[in-house]
Amino acid sequence: RTVYVNGDYLPENEAKISIFDRGFLMADGVYEVTSVLDGKLIDFDGHAARLERSLGELEMASPVTRDALLAIHRELVARNGIDQGMIYLQITRGAPADRDFAFPDPEETPSSIVLFTQNKPNIADNPAAKKGIKIITIDDARWGRRDIKTVQLLYPSMGKMMAKKAGVDDAWLVQDGFVTEGTSNNAYIVKGGKIITRERSHDILHGITRAAVLRFAAEAQMQVEERNFTVTEAQEADEAFITSASTFVMPVVEIDGAELGGGKPGPVAVRLREIYLEESRKAAV
Ligand code: PMP
Q1: In this structure, which topology does domain 2-119 adopt according to CATH?
Q2: What is the DSSP letter of 65?
Q3: Mean pLDDT across 53-72
Q4: Under CATH, to which class is 127-283 assigned?
Q5: Which GO terms describe its molecular function (predicted)?
């Protein structure tokens, strides 16, 4: 596989980052994941805009322009022959600098940028989407700025492990009795035809897929309500689903052991998945 690191395209085993990199020592960095369908990028502009926002919130400058970033994405897709899959992008506060909590002077410590591809032939034709996934709910023990897409993913990793140990697919996070989002996705319920999802704030990541899905839902005359919901309300809903760049729209059929919709993906989730795939393929670059 060819990867991109700080200006160079290299075989993955030749790509290197300093042990002093702030991403490695402090999780001081941000990332994005963009899907590739039919060799094209899904919602590149959305991901680029969120990346710029994340960098700004952390007082980091982007080492590349948006146009250069698009060119790098396309080059990696071409060099690795990616038809269906994803591109991971990470920018950290870089190296070298003495280990210190305070940010180093960016003149002396340039940021690091890394991109790589992952081939995922089943990304659109995902068997899990036909069955739906099961989730548990766990305490949301993350920090308070989940709107910044940082690489500090230890708690979400622990959440995935808790789900795995419980014999289910994923976990939703709960704060003060209300669902915030999934470990790596946004969370939704559907009741009486209405799509309900938590409103945007510092408590959740502002999903790029979320924005697209809510737009498509409104265009299809579906009702959308952005508000908090509890675990009990979710368990009593007609259906539930998650969204993310790598799962698109994925039905949820069980929450903490309570089955939804007879254990089958609900019609709203199924329809939104179809619309999302169709529309985002049309708009892909
Ligand atoms: N919330 C969290 C915590 C996530 O990690 C992700 C995916 N990275 C999402 C939501 C979904 O965001 P997107 O649709 O932009 O992939």
Answers
A1: D-amino Acid Aminotransferase; Chain A, domain 1 (3.30.470)
A2: -
A3: 97
A4: alpha beta
A5: D-alanine-2-oxoglutarate aminotransferase activity
Average per-residue pLDDT for the chain:
98
pLDDT at 188: 99
Q: How far apart are CA 192 and CA 155, in angstroms?
A: 34
64 C-alpha to ligand 1 centroid (Å):
23
ipTM: 0.99
Atom of ligand 1 nearest to the CA of 183: 3
The closest of 130, 138, 252, 133 to 190, measured between CA atoms, is 252
Say if residue 249 is exposed, middle or buried (CB neighbours under 10 Å; 0-12, 13-18, 19+).
Answer: buried
**Gap from CA of 236 to ligand 1 centroid (Å):** 25
> Residues 16, 40, 134, 149: which is the catalytic one?
149
The model's pLDDT over 73-113, given as tens digits with 9 standing for 90+, comes to 999 999 999 999 999 999 999 999 899 999 999 999 999 99
User: pLDDT digits over 253-265, tens only?
Assistant: 999 999 999 999 9
Provide the pairing of β-strand 223-226 with 85-92.
Answer: unpaired
- 65's tokens: 């322009």
Q: How far is the CA of 82 from the centre of ligand 1 (A)?
A: 22
- Residue of the CA atom closest to atom 5 of ligand 1: 184
Q: Is 165 a catalytic residue?
A: no
Residues with CB under 6 A from ligand 1: 33, 181, 184-186, 205, 207-210, 243-245
The domain spans of the chain are 2-119, 127-283
pLDDT band at 169 (very low <50, low <70, confident <90, very high): very high
Q: Are 212 and 280 in contact (CB under 8 A)?
A: yes
Domains 2-119 and 127-283 share a fold: no
Nearest-angstrom CA–CA distance, 168 and 147: 26
